[in-house]
Structures are given as structure tokens and as C-alpha cells.
Request: fold
Amino acid sequence: MSDRPKGKARGHTRARGAAGEALAAQHLEQLGLRIVARNVHLRFGELDLIALDGTALVVVEVRLRASARFGSAAESVDARKQRRIVRAARELLARGGLPRFSRVRFDVVAIDATGFPPVVSHFRDAFTADGS
Reply:
């Protein structure tokens, strides 16, 4: 049996996720990144945020945890999730139409919402396309 929320609970989870992504985008913008896309749906998955940091294209995975029951937000971006993000990013790059960039970087923004205010942590270069 799945622990995934159903019905109204799923809507609440989506709303919380959207709020987390907005908080992450605001945090990244304060650091000087420019958000160029949000919630990009692709065949291999969804990319939460796409940003530019100077000449680097940054693919950002946003993770929010309102409970430590299943581990921290950062811990939830495991090797399997990283592979999905990389596959989706490759699909996005193959489509073209993006601003010019010199390299691709994978960042994670982890939001700990177990207290108030939420704690935002930014992990720059959190992983690479080759799995390191």
C-alpha cells in the first residue's frame, strides 16, 4: 500500500510543493541566479527550476520536508532521483531553445519546514551528470 496522499491531501501536498518552489526561487534570485523556467514537464520527469548563474545553466531540484519521519529533504535526492533529473535535463537540452550557457550544473535546494520559519539550504553542484 502506498503512503502517497490521496484526494484533498494530495492537493495540500501540491500546494506545499509549489510554495516550497517559490521560496527556493526567491532564495536563488537573492543569490544572483536568474530563473528562466519552472516546473518543466518532460518525458523522463519534471525539472523544478531552471536558472542561469552567470554562464552556467543550473538545473535545480527542490525538496521540502515538513517532517523528519522519512529523512531530510537533502537526503531524499538519492542516486535514482539524480538519474531521473539528469535524463530529463538531457531531454531538455536536446530540445534546444535555451539561453546560451557554458556548462550545466545540478543544484539542490532543501527546505526544512519542520519549524518556523523554514530553513533553506542550497547545495551548489550537488551532483554531476556522470553520477559523482
